[in-house]
Amino acid sequence: MRLLRSTLATAAALCALATGVVLAQPAQPAQASAADCEGGRNGFRDHPDNAEGDTVKPRSFDLGNVHFTLEKGAYVGQQIAFGKISGQTRPGDNVWMDWRATGWDHDGAVSPWLQCGPFTVRSAGQSLTTPFRRTSTDPQYQFRVCGSLISDGRVHCSDWW
């Protein structure tokens, strides 16, 4: 069965090339799991789901009555960022935060793009946050908030900050 799938995939790719259609995969993060940023992993820190940043939200978007915000705040004298979903959420809605840095990050590890999440809403109206990470004045050290609703499953992301 595996050989048949492989053969069909190869045939489909050859047909696409012969007709001039290019099949491309969108760029994917180096990691894409909630476990990769929980419990202090990869420079992230956990905090309560009802956490709020300061009044200035660097990035945000709404999908109907569901709000996605990139929050910023301070922890032990350092600026931090985290993603948040709030509003009229439904079980199955998701939020995550993407983080990227070109080259070496400030913790000494190479990690050009890490997706922190997704984290899934479990009850109607639940607010949910991602773990937070220290920010930087380096313009190549960036964050954005992303999410999807159970009602349509399409992924939406803010601009990078």
From TrEMBL:
Region (Disordered): 34-57
Signal sequence range: 1-24
Record key words, sorted: Signal
Keyword Signal recorded: yes
Signal listed as a keyword: yes
Composition-biased stretches (Basic and acidic residues): 43-57
Domain of life: Bacteria
Protein name: Secreted protein
Organism taxonomic ancestry: Bacteria, Bacillati, Actinomycetota, Actinomycetes, Kitasatosporales
